[in-house]
Amino acid sequence: MFDLKNYIQTNNKLIDKTLDEILQLKTNPGQLAKAMRYSLTAGGKRIRPVLCIAANEAVGGDSAAVFPVACALEMIHTYSLIHDDLPAMDDDKLRRGKATCHIRFDEATAILAGDALLTLAFEIIAAYGLKNTNFNSLELIRLISRAAGARGMIEGQMQDIAGEGTLLSQAQLEQMHSLKTGALIEVAVYSGALIGNAGKAQIDALKIYSRKTGLAFQITDDILNVKGDPLIMGKAVGTDLKQNKSTYPAILGLKKSVEMSKNLIKDALDALTIFDERCDPLRSVADYIIKRQR
Amino acid sequence: MFDLKNYIQTNNKLIDKTLDEILQLKTNPGQLAKAMRYSLTAGGKRIRPVLCIAANEAVGGDSAAVFPVACALEMIHTYSLIHDDLPAMDDDKLRRGKATCHIRFDEATAILAGDALLTLAFEIIAAYGLKNTNFNSLELIRLISRAAGARGMIEGQMQDIAGEGTLLSQAQLEQMHSLKTGALIEVAVYSGALIGNAGKAQIDALKIYSRKTGLAFQITDDILNVKGDPLIMGKAVGTDLKQNKSTYPAILGLKKSVEMSKNLIKDALDALTIFDERCDPLRSVADYIIKRQR
To answer: How many angstroms away from the CA of B282 is the closest CA of chain A?
Structure first.
């Protein structure tokens, strides 16, 4: 039986170490660097880097080589959280049980720390690509910036804000989430595969896996907002309902939402049948995504 | 006599056309794309792309090839203006005679439009690099992200905010500006040279040129804030003094500031003696930078 907890802990230690080294090397000491570090080390689940590393292993890659890119993905995710939490956006004061960046520092610092993390992500991938020429790092940058940008994550956040107060259809909700969270999760898996020089059949399978898993991840987020434990979550629950947000439980009901997320994970796992046991981490992550408590 | 006005007009038309094509191709229609387009076409001077194009010509490059990268630099510059104008930062309501992005739209849209422009810049350079392999586009991405990031432009903005209300020394002011505006101007020149496959002596000369010109540009900005015409500038003047900002006129006095900017441009021009007449656009831009009225 694959020990996911141990796998995640081991990898998270390496991710934290790599992030720490990057910050030491690539920032000047001061308020900006402090805010970047604060948010990067605020206890995130590290789902995206772990997916990148696990996908790399699944296709037979050498996982050590993938860490800088995995960290760049976590930087992009963290920047998006910092900006989403701002007063002009979701106005969240708490994230993962800690004060959000603009509460701990101030709004200007939070905006700039987010900007700097996004920018640093591309610096890291470019620097990494200059040293590692066995894969197409320009293609990686193109795909990651696309997934994170105006036809991906940022457009999703825009749609999320625009949709506040109106109940979206299931199709609209799915599109919004596939942009807001799905795109970056998909490209995290793809990045690991690309760096591991995956073949076409492997990439096709991983695309299905990441799309289904990404959606299940979001549905679970919505479910946890209804019935999660605020102490474990590190943030308030029930806020979606109060803010009249379109969520899967609101549209489908809780029972159907749970069912849907389970079916998605089943489909995701079915897509992985072409892989051997080196794919077990990816399989376990899919399972964890709907069983998690936060 | 080189006709700079005509040169800038011709290039700006091409820059605008390229920017328009990029936005059409790389964004979805909607509020986000509207805000990105609004700020990109709000009448900027296009100094950075013009410097990139002119540097490319100076080293004998084919300037048509440089436009996507020149536009990416303008996107990064525009994103930085959108974020700097936000209420949590400089809280500016007017920019280039038009409402700033968060006034015309709203704060959330402005934050996201800035994020999207920054992200799109890297997508454009990566896509361009995939098609044009005659120069090192990964190195270009590394240098541009570095110049725009936590050891460049963003750190400069952070220092600018942190220094508000205290009179900086001339050395502190120079460091802040070399980060906040200098770094991106320098990398704009460098990008053009790199794409044109410049030699080492050419690059060294252009580094001196861009450093001196960048500083002169900032000093002129400070001078225009004292004695510029608000109608030509499209924004209020005298604001630095009111906000107790550290500026060159405040530290050195107006007369010495004018003298210093002239000397810097003289040094910048002296560095260009190794180039032939294909460098005339760069020479003219340096001259324009201190003679401009806005």
So the answer is: 28
CA distance B257 to B263: 10
Residue B115 sits at the chain A interface (C-beta within 8 Å):
yes
Measured in angstroms, the CA of B24 and the nearest CA of chain A are apart by: 11
Q: Which residue ranges make up each domain of chain A?
A: 4-291
- Considering only the beta carbons, identify the residue of A115, A141, A161 that sits closest to B154: A115
- Best CA proximity match to B175, nearest among A28, A110, A124, A109: A28
Q: Is the pLDDT of residue A73 over 90?
A: yes
Chain A contact for B253 (CB, 8 A cutoff): no
Chain A, window 145-164: residues with a beta carbon less than 8 angstroms from a chain B beta carbon? 145-146, 148-151, 154-155, 157-158, 161-162
Q: What is the mean pLDDT of residues A194-220?
A: 96
Instruction: Kindly state the average pLDDT of the residues B180-188.
Output: 96
Confidence of residue A74 (pLDDT cuts 50, 70, 90): very high
ipTM for the predicted complex comes to: 0.95
- Gap between the Cα atoms of B223 and B229, Å rounded: 11
Whether the predicted pLDDT of A47 surpasses 80: yes
The answer to whether A119 and A78 are in contact (CB under 8 A) is: no
Q: What is the pLDDT of residues B212-240, one digit of tens each?
A: 999 999 999 899 988 877 777 777 777 77
User: Given CB atoms, is A123 within the 8 Å cutoff of chain B?
Assistant: yes
E strands along chain B, which residues?
94-95, 98-99
Identify the bridge partners of residue A94 per DSSP, sorted by sequence position. Answer: A99
| Rounded-to-integer distance, Cα B37 and Cα B32, Å | 9
Q: A4-291 architecture in CATH?
A: Orthogonal Bundle (1.10)
- For the record, the structure tokens of B187 come out as 């990398």
- The Cα B84–Cα B213 span in angstroms is 22
